[in-house]
Structures are given as structure tokens and as C-alpha cells.
């Protein structure tokens, strides 16, 4: 057996190698194409990207023709460089740099010399392209935005980088690829498939026809169209309401998890990132460290959620059976939780239970509920971890898994966090009591808050938020149709919803309602700190509002954050009300709120952050005369110069 084993292995291996060589050399001719690379020119036919529509069938993103000048460095010979540069409006130094860059990529393969010519440049160059050996024109399709909103949702397309080319053989130098937004998330679907034509060349490098009569040529396949869950009119309206403000708006359809609007402010027009000026415009937007227009606040900004978090505190208290709907606490305009430690409360005070605790937004009531929740267990760490599990079931403290590239987890602290923060131990419920009202160590993104309200509207379940509604020729990922159920039983949601409904009737949002429309909501005000000159400084609070409507059979859940917006009912509340009315009724009756929000300007608040002269902000911020005077007063007070304050007044 041993004598025959080795010869058998050698014979079998030899046969396998011979069969493989026969297949590669006789049957499979693709290697032959590669071996004859010097005699065969490969031309790519780039497909149109798929179109993008909103949920109502409105076209949002289409395509427009674009032309790139490609170069094969080894074929560039005896050209009039000065004439060439004059046509394309570049100088000789730029010309040499681009040729050198092309040589580094490959002396024999084509790469982009100059991208995205306009029609005049293309026409001028096309007339004389035959004079410039080694150069040819490659037609592509660029995005043509039909709307001037939704830039953060769409993303943009740009030239592929070298690292991507190394990882993915589909892409070649000069190819376009989606970045950010749905362009990146659905790149494989939107891009389509390139067509390929193999052209035979003679010994003089002249094209003499198709290789093998086009046997290996393929036709370009256009990208698939996609329909977004976004309501275009609602998105546009949200961006208009947020002009001269900073923050985010996220609106969801509770029963499906579809994203109806995803607003970040400030934003930019999507058309800025198309064409020859794309790179320059992107650099300008990227370097704007003040307004941060590329930072999607709806998905990436992590804020203390403030009073809307009391909804969860109440629900967990009911589930843990530490309180019921009739449990009462007495509020004396605050809650004392230690020697010299006092949590202030702005509610009218008195006897508080769940219902009026919600619509009056009583800090004392929810601090007591949270304290009981943690102290129900033998050790604080067990109580905190149980509370943490409830929060995680609402999608908090983790990635939600939506279908857009950026994301943040927010933060829901666990016992490990506090053990690390207090290495000597000694922490207990009173140490972390601020969590009860959405301050402390709790952080949430606007989309997490909107999803929380969708869960309340659904009485205990949610679907992963997503921006895709339909893909032509494809199925939507099943994870967007999978129901997630919270650890809080459905029966506990109704009393909380009743309290949220009365927020509009007799609570902190009284006066913001719409006749004939039942809205359930919750105001929020979150403390806002920053560092100025190395010192921790408290700035104007963030304005927050969450809501869903109608009360029965909800169609929209929403979260609004307005940075430095003070009370929740001052800015975020009116904006949420207007968005809800716009979506459900398709018209606005609260024109008083609309006028105030559209004309509202918070840039003077943001200007406080920067210790510069008022005049330096005017080019960057749209400051009214009144805003400028107000800002000067603030600066004077910061500098403690009474004479200046008196002079300004």
C-alpha cells in the first residue's frame, strides 16, 4: 500500500493540473485576453445610476451627462501642450502634475486626467481630441438633484479612492462611488453594472475592430431605482423651519419604522457636491467647524434627552411594580436626595401621581420612581443593570441598525460604568438620581428619541428605523420588517399615553395644539455645558420635544432638538406641532406658530460660543439688528464691564 501511495498521488495531481491547464488555455479564453493586453484596448461603458424617489413617487434624484478626459501616459506623444492647456483652462504645471499622477497609477492603463467637464469644455476639446494622442473622452453620468433639500439623506458620489480599488476589483481609477447617505448604503444597487468592450489594435497601436467579433463584450446595466420612505414635502418643510437654528428633526411612521423626515440643521444644497467645484465645496463644508453642515445631528448628535426620558422612567416603574397609577408623592418644588443636594422642579408642586406628573413634568415624582426602581434590589448595581436591560429593549445605548451609514449609540450607564467611575464604591440611587429626568450620564440621539415615541405609540414594540421603502427588482432586508418587543408590557402604556395627551390640554405644551387633531407629546429642556478658555461654562439649555399623533391609530412619531433653544415649548414644541399638522392634514392652520418659527433666529445664541467681536460673526451668521444688540449685551456681561453694558443700552 505504501509503495503505491506516492505514485498514485503524483499521477492524480498531474492529471488535475493537466485538466486545469487545458481548461484555461483552450476552453476559458479570458486569460488570453489578459495575456494579449498590449494588443487589446478595454473600453468601459458606464451605466446610469438608479433614480431616487420619495414615498409619494416624486422624483428626487436623477442623472445628467458628464465627460471625463482620460489619459494613457505611454501613448502621449508630440502634442501642443500650450494649446491643450488653453482649451481646458489649466496651466502647464497642472498639466505636468496630472500626467505624473497618471504615470504613478499606471503608464499603460487609462486614468482620469480631468474630471467632469461642462458642456462648453467638452465641445471645445471634442473638436481637437484627435490631435492629442493618448487622450480620449469617457462619458459618465452625474447626479442631477431635482430638489434643494435632503443632502444628508442622499449623500453624494465621488471618485473612488485607491484603498477601495485595492479591496474591490470592480472599481478602476476614475470610477465613481457613493459616499454617505443612501448613495453609500445602496451603492451596489444604485451603481448598476459596467459594460465592457474589447478593441483589437494593430502593431501601430491603431484600433482595427472588436476582439473576437465582440464575443467577450458586455452591455452596461443601469442601476436599480429606489423609493425612499421620506415624504419630500415634509422634509422640505422641516428644513425650512430649522433655518437659522441648529439641531435635528426625526419623524417616523410608528407601525413600520419608516423614516418620514430626517432633518439636520444647518445643512447645504445637494447640488454643491456635483461637478468640477465638488471638491472645493466639500472642503469648505468640511472645514466649517462652527456650523458643521456635514454633521448629521439627527443621527450623530448625542444629547441629554431631558424630560422626555421621564416617559421611560415611569414605564419601568410600572413594570417593576414599584409604583402604580395611583401612587402619589408630594412635590415641594424640588427633591432633596442628600445633605445639601436638591433637584429643583418647575412644576406647580402639590400631590403628584403618574398622570399629572407627566403633563406637569414633575422632577420630584420621577426621581422618586427611579429611586424605588434601583432600591427594589438588594444592591444598587443589580438595580441599575435591571434598569439598563429595560432601556436596551427600547433600542437605547446601542446602534439601532438603520440603513444609513452614520450612527451613534448614545449612552445608557451600567453598574460597570459606575464601578469604573467610582473605583472606591459608595455609589447608590441618590448618586445617579439625575438619570431619572434624562440628565446625568444618559445620552440619546434624536432618532433614538423618535423611535422611543414610536414604541409608546405602538404600546411596546418597534421596527428598526429605515429610509428604504421599495427597490425595483429587489427585496428589502428582512431586518426592517422584524418586530422588536420591549420588556415593558403593553398594559402599562395606556396610562402614560393619557398623560402625554394632557401635555397639550393642560400641561407644558398647552397652547400648542391643533383643533381637531389629538397629539400626545412631551416637552424637554436639557442643560447645556461647554468649555470656553478651558473653563466649563453653562450655556442656554437645549429645547426638546417628542410627540406622536393621532392619539388613536398613530401615523407619525417625532423628535425635535433645537440647540440652545431654552424651554421645550419655545422652539422644539411649535416645530413638532407644525410638522405633525403638515403630515396629517397636508396644510397649516397654526399660522401664528409657523410665522414665528420661519422667522425665528438663534444665531445670536450660537455666537456666544466664540470670544470674538460681534462684527466677525455677521458674515457667518444672519444677525438682525436686535440680535446684534442682544449679543453685545451678552458679551459685555461676560466681560463684566458695566460701562460697556450701560453704553450698549
What can you see in these coordinates?
This is Penicillin-binding protein 2. Peptidoglycan glycosyltransferase. Keywords: Carboxypeptidase, Cell inner membrane, Cell membrane, Cell shape, Cell wall biogenesis/degradation, Glycosyltransferase, Hydrolase, Membrane, Peptidoglycan synthesis, Protease, Transferase, Transmembrane, Transmembrane helix. It is an enzyme of class 2 (transferase). Residues 247-576 form the Penicillin-binding protein transpeptidase domain. By secondary structure, this protein is of the alpha+beta class. It has 3 domains: 64-140; 232-613, Beta-lactamase (3-Layer(aba) Sandwich), CATH 3.40.710.10; 619-646. Strands 2, 3, 4, 5, 10 and 18 form a 6-stranded mixed beta sheet that branches. A 5-stranded antiparallel beta sheet has the order 12-11-22-21-20, sandwiched between helices. Helix 13 (310-319) packs across helix 15 (363-375) and helix 24 packs antiparallel against helix 25. The longest helix has 26 residues, at 2-27. The radius of gyration is 31 Å and the shape is elongated.
Amino acid at each position: 500500500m505504501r509503495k503505491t501511495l506516492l505514485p498514485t498521488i503524483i499521477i492524480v495531481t498531474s492529471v488535475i493540473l493537466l485538466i486545469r491547464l487545458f481548461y484555461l488555455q483552450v476552453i476559458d479564453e479570458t486569460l488570453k485576453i489578459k495575456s494579449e493586453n498590449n494588443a487589446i484596448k478595454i473600453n468601459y461603458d458606464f451605466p446610469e445610476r438608479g433614480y431616487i424617489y420619495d414615498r409619494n413617487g416624486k422624483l428626487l434624484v436623477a442623472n445628467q451627462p458628464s465627460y471625463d478626459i482620460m489619459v494613457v501616459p505611454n501613448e502621449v506623444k508630440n502634442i501642443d501642450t500650450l494649446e491643450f492647456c488653453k482649451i481646458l483652462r489649466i496651466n502647464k504645471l497642472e498639466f505636468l502634475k496630472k500626467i505624473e499622477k497618471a504615470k504613478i497609477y499606471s503608464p499603460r492603463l487609462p486614468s482620469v486626467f480631468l474630471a467632469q467637464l461642462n458642456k462648453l469644455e467638452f465641445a471645445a476639446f471634442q473638436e481637437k481630441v484627435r490631435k492629442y494622442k493618448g487622450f480620449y473622452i469617457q462619458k459618465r453620468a452625474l447626479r442631477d438633484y431635482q430638489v434643494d433639500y435632503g443632502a444628508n439623506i442622499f449623500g453624494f458620489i465621488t471618485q473612488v479612492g485607491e484603498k477601495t480599488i485595492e479591496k474591490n476589483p470592480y472599481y478602476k481609477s476614475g470610477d465613481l462611488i457613493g459616499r454617505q447617505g443612501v448613495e453609500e448604503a445602496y451603492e451596489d444597487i444604485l451603481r448598476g453594472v459596467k459594460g465592457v468592450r474589447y478593441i483589437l489594435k494593430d502593431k501601430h497601436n491603431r484600433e482595427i475592430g472588436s476582439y473576437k467579433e465582440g464575443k467577450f463584450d458586455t452591455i452596461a446595466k443601469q442601476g436599480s431605482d429606489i423609493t425612499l420612505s421620506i415624504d419630500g414635502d415634509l422634509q422640505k418643510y422641516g428644513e425650512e423651519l430649522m433655518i437659522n437654528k441648529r439641531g435635528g428633526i426625526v419623524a417616523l411612521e410608528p407601525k413600520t419604522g419608516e423614516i418620514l423626515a430626517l432633518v439636520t440643521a444647518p445643512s447645504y444644497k445637494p447640488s454643491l457636491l456635483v461637478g468640477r467645484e465638488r471638491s472645493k465645496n466639500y472642503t469648505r463644508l468640511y472645514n466649517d467647524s462652527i456650523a458643521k453642515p456635514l454633521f448629521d445631528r439627527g443621527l450623530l448628535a448625542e444629547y441629554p434627552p431631558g424630560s422626555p426620558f421621564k416617559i421611560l422612567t415611569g414605564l419601568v416603574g410600572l413594570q417593576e411594580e414599584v409604583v402604580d397609577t395611583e401612587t402619589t408623592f408630594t412635590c415641594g418644588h424640588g427633591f432633596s436626595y442628600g445633605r445639601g443636594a436638591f433637584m429643583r422642579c418647575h412644576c406647580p408642586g402639590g400631590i403628584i401621581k403618574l398622570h399629572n406628573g407627566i403633563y406637569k413634568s414633575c422632577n420630584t415624582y420621577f426621581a422618586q420612581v427611579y429611586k424605588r426602581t434601583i432600591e427594589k434590589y438588594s444592591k444598587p448595581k443589580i438595580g441599575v443593570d435591571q434598569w439598563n436591560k429595560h432601556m436596551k429593549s427600547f433600542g437605547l445605548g446601542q446602534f439601532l441598525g438603520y440603513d444609513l451609514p452614520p450612527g451613534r449609540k448614545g449612552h445608557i450607564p451600567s453598574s460597570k460604568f459606575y464601578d469604573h467611575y467610582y473605583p472606591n464604591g459608595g455609589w447608590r440611587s441618590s448618586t445617579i438620581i439625575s438619570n431619572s429626568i434624562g440628565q446625568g450620564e444618559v445620552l440619546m440621539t434624536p432618532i433614538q428619541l423618535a423611535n422611543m415615541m414610536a414604541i409608546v405609540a405602538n404600546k411596546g414594540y418597534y421596527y428598526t428605523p429605515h429610509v428604504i421603502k421599495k427597490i425595483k427588482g429587489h427585496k428589502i432586508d428582512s431586518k426592517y420588517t422584524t418586530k422588536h418587543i420591549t420588556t415593558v408590557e403593553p398594559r402599562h402604556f395606556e396610562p402614560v399615553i393619557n398623560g402625554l395627551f394632557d401635555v397639550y390640554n393642560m400641561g407644558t405644551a398647552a397652547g400648542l395644539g391643533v383643533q381637531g387633531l389629538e397629539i400626545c407629546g412631551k416637552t424637554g429642556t436639557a442643560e447645556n455645558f461647554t468649555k470656553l478658555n478651558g473653563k466649563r461654562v453653562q450655556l442656554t439649555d437645549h429645547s426638546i420635544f417628542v410627540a406622536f399623533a393621532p392619539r388613536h391609530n398613530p401615523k407619525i412619531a417625532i423628535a425635535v432638538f433645537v440647540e440652545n433653544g431654552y424651554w421645550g415649548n419655545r422652539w422644539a414644541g411649535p416645530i413638532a406641532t407644525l410638522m405633525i399638522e403638515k403630515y396629517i392634514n397636508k396644510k397649516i392652520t397654526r399660522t401664528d406658530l409657523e410665522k414665528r418659527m420661519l422667522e425665528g433666529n438663534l444665531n445670536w445664541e450660537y455666537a456666544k460660543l466664540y470670544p470674538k467681536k460681534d462684527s466677525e460673526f455677521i458674515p457667518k451668521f444672519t444677525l438682525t439688528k436686535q440680535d446684534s444688540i442682544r449679543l453685545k449685551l451678552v458679551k459685555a456681561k461676560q466681560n463684566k464691564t458695566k460701562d460697556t453694558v450701560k453704553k450698549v443700552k
